[in-house]
Each structure stands twice: as structure tokens, then as C-alpha cells.
Amino acid sequence: MKLLSQFRESFRLKAFISFTLFLLIIFSSFTIFFYYQQSKALTNTLFKNSELLIGVLAYSVRLGDLTANKDLLKENAEGIFQQKNILEVAIFNREKNLFREIKKEAVPLKSASLELQVPREVQESVEKGQALFFRENKDYFELWCPVVTGGLYASEEDLFLDQNLFKKKREISGFAKITVDKSELKQALYLLLLKSILIGVFFWGGGSLLIFLVTQKITTPLKRLTEGVAAFGSGEEV
């Protein structure tokens, strides 16, 4: 009860707690917003890079012939496989059967290419006119892209720039697929979260200290004045 009474009577303590809680709300909101924006940027960067790689792979397969240019296709697949975070590269033929696959043996993948055929959900997505199919796992994600022939695209960028053209006319001669590792992304997100929390705690602690010093500087003269008035009222010598 004594502590509660002191709290009610202490303007300094009430001001300090009020402003400290206000700062806590402000910096917590900033930390959440900062983490959300940065994590979204990191995720989008990884996806966009992967989207570009699968487009290049599909375009290189389109230029070649699955049976006549095996060496060229192997070089193209290995070139994509050497890129950062790539766990698996797979090419499927017109019959939707696995034609070539390169994957990291040390990483167990429960992917459709192990079944040696394009999964039905990918085929249905392409039939609906989708140029890309995305499937995610907690440790990795897959990108599938149909290999379109017949001179439909002028460059690999057209695979993504003109969705309507893809819907109007398409001749699918196969599928390309890459599996992308998310472990580096998860580590980056963890470090980002830790960094965001530390930044928030640092500014909150600094702001709280500043508020304490300011309230102390403001309330100390008021406290002395109050004590002087009380002493004067009681007849004591001030």
C-alpha cells in the first residue's frame, strides 16, 4: 500500500513509466515493420532470382532438342545447377517423363522428379494457362516451367512478360524444374529478426534513459518547491 501511495504521489515515476511505455509501443511497431519489410525483400529477391533461372533453363531447352543435343542440355542444366541455393535441376520430355536430373546427393528431396514424371497439379496449372508453378516445402521450394516451342517466344523474358500470349498459342515439348534451398534464407531471416530486436531494444533503452534524465531534471526543482511550501505551511524554517 505504501508503494502504491508513493506511485500515486510521484509525478516523476508516473511520467517516466508513461513515456517509457509509449516508447516501447513505438519501437516495437518499428521493429515489426522493419522486419516485415526486410524479410519480404529477401524472400522476393530469392524468388525473382529463381524465377529468372527457371526461365533461362526452359528457354535453353526450347532452343535445343532433347534427343539430338544431350550434351548441350547437360551443360545448360549444370550451369543452372552451379548457381547459388540450387539443390536440383530437372528436365522432362514431351511425354512428361524425366529426361535429365542433377541434384545434390547429400540433400534428401521428396520431389516429384524422384517419381520420374511431372505431377498432375503442375499439368493442370499449365492447362489453365499458368507459365509458372510454385510449390513450397519448409526447407526448399520448387519452380516448374513448361518448355514452349514453335517460335512463340523471342527471348526467355517473354516467358513471364506476356501471359496472354502464352494462353493464346502454346506447344509444350517438355517441362523444366529447379529446387531451391531455403536454409540460407531462413538463416538470413533469423539474423534479421535478431538484428531488429537488438535495434529496438537499443533505441528503447536509450530513449528510456533520456526520459529518466529529463523527468528528473524537471521534477527535482518542483519537489524542492513542494517541500519548501510544505515546510512553510507547517511553520518550519525553510
What do these coordinates show?
It is a single chain. Helix 2 (11-63) packs antiparallel against helix 7 (183-233). The chain has one domain: PAS domain (Beta-Lactamase, 2-Layer Sandwich). The chain has a five-stranded antiparallel sheet. By secondary structure, it is an alpha+beta fold. The model has no long low-confidence stretch (mean pLDDT 77). The protein has helices at 2-9, 11-63, 70-81, 120-127, 158-161, 163-168, 183-233, and strands at 86-92, 98-103, 133-136, 140-148, 172-181. The chain is rod-shaped and about 95 Å long. The protein is built from seven helices and five strands.
Morphology: rod-shaped
Tell me the distance between the termini. 30 Å
- How much is the average pLDDT? 77
Helix-strand topology string = HHHEEHEEHHEH
Biggest β-sheet description:
5 strands, antiparallel
Number of helices: 7
The CATH superfamily bears the name PAS domain
Q: Into which percentage range does the β-strand content fall?
A: 15-25%
Provide the number of structural domains: 1
Uncertain stretches: none
Order of adjacent strands in the largest pleated sheet: 2-1-5-4-3
Helix content: 55-70%
